[in-house]
Specification:
A hairpin with a 2-residue loop joins strand 1 (105-109) and strand 2. The protein has 154 residues and is mainly alpha-helical. The chain is globular. The protein has a single domain (3-142), classed as dinb family like domain (Four Helix Bundle (Hemerythrin (Met), subunit A), Up-down Bundle), CATH 1.20.120.450. The relative contact order is 0.20. The protein has a two-stranded antiparallel sheet. Helix 1 (3-21) runs antiparallel to helix 4 (76-97), helix 1 (3-21) runs parallel beside helix 5 (118-142) and helix 3 packs antiparallel against helix 5. The protein has 5 helices and 2 strands. Keywords: Metal-binding. It holds the Pfam family DinB. A divalent metal cation binds at residues 47, 128, 132.
Length: 154
């Protein structure tokens, strides 16, 4: 399993999304919309970064949670910096598990404890990001922007 090649595709798609988000006004970047569970573009981006922290940083790499507080970000440049930090530990994950994608890893979600694998944790994190990427694009449409194509194949 070549986690790094797959993550490079995710990063390419994310860069397109973040570049698009840089065209939003700061007010729109922070604007909460009641139809979206996580509220704003900023909140959705932070949630995505924190999802990587939880599943990859905390579970796969056995680090301690170091979540980003959404209120600490006020513009897209700060969100880009958060994803730069995510990239550091995801690259470490890719290297560590490249030859053992089915290793058994302890994991938890709330009170539930279970065994997982690197491929399961990685797949969960990247599909979670793409789910919320779609929400971000829908939210920006509600704010009056014309969403762009952020698919991997575009």
């Amino acid at each position: 399993m070549d986690f790094q090649k797959q993550y490079d595709l995710v990063r390419s798609s994310r860069k397109v999304l973040l570049d698009y988000c840089a065209t939003l006004t700061d007010a729109d970047f922070l604007a909460a919309h009641p139809a979206f569970g996580r509220g704003s573009v900023r909140d959705l981006l932070v949630h995505n970064a924190n999802t990587y922290q939880w599943w990859i940083g905390t579970h796969a790499l056995q680090g301690r949670p170091d979540f980003t507080d959404k209120d600490s970000l006020t513009d897209i440049a700060q969100a880009v910096s958060v994803f730069d930090q995510v990239d550091v530990f995801v690259v470490e994950f890719c290297e560590r598990f490249k030859d053992d994608p089915t290793a058994t890893l302890p994991a938890s979600l709330g009170e539930k404890k279970f065994l997982s694998t690197p491929i399961e944790l990685f797949t969960h994190a990247i599909t979670h990001e793409f789910h919320h990427k779609g929400q971000i694009l829908s939210l920006t449409r509600q704010l009056g922007y014309v969403p762009i194509d952020t698919d991997i194949i575009r």
